[in-house]
Amino acid sequence: MNRHLQRIFIVDFISLLAGLWTIGQAQLVDAPGYGSREKVIFEKIEPIIRHGCRVPLRLPRFLRDEKQPIYAIAQPVTRFHYKILLATELSCNGQNSCLYGSIQGSATPFKLDKNIKPFKVSLMGHDGQFIKPVCHEYCSEAFVQWREGGFYYSIGIKAERMHSLIGIADSAIGGPPPPLSAPKP
Questions:
Q1: Which residues contact residue 180 at a Cβ distance below 8 angstroms, ignoring those fewer than 6 apart?
Q2: Which run of H or E residues covers position 164?
Q3: H/E run at residue 147
Q4: What is the pTM of this model?
Q5: Which H helix or E strand runs over 102?
Q6: Are 121 and 162 in contact (CB under 8 A)?
């Protein structure tokens, strides 16, 4: 095979891989208006995760209002673990500057640093724990974690308060979104 055909083949292969990578991404679209809830669109990544992982998905139906777009980016999926990054840029790889949060499901418990002291919380009939964010030069994610049906789940949002994060986790478990702080007129 001559070099020209090899280059064409390589470019086509890279284009194919880039297209498959893009399929695994979806934008979270929010409804317009003050205090509106965001409707999470996971159309493109949900089938990939459901097909590749035995852990049932728990996707929030509510996220706090944001002025910037938020993207759901599927991380590598195994049979027993999935992770979704929530980011403000499509090309985010978890850097603090573009990270909004994360969603995880696992067949095994999440490991916590021994210095972390979680708070016990109640989530739609499940015992859970809240892990507060650490803020110095920047803030880390706050997490709510729980066990459901023999699986372990975690939702993290950067610098989020406990009450809001519990509402987001409740919406993933199947509860209604939390009440709006300021109802629409």
A1: 35, 37
A2: helix 162-173
A3: strand 141-148
A4: 0.74
A5: strand 99-106
A6: yes
